[in-house]
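Fold it.
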Amino acid sequence: MPLYHLEPVADFLEDENWSASTHKKDVIVESGSEKQARQIAHDRFWIAADRKSNGAIPENPWKNADKVLCRQVGKGNDVSPPAGAILIKAKP
């Protein structure tokens, strides 16, 4: 199964939407597609958060292509996660 590397864009790490995520570093996700990899990260790291300074509810940014880069990096076990990254394996 393909592996996708999701990488938060450094310029957006101070965005208040990151308060809705428990993880703010690189992630390697085993999934069938980029869309599914983003959804898995979103679901895995989602947390209820206080409202943003403008009163809006924070949106977990893992599905946002502007705030999190995503690229396919291999298949199966042929990739080692970067330092500090989490590897999320597909469910059997």
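The helical segments are 34-45.
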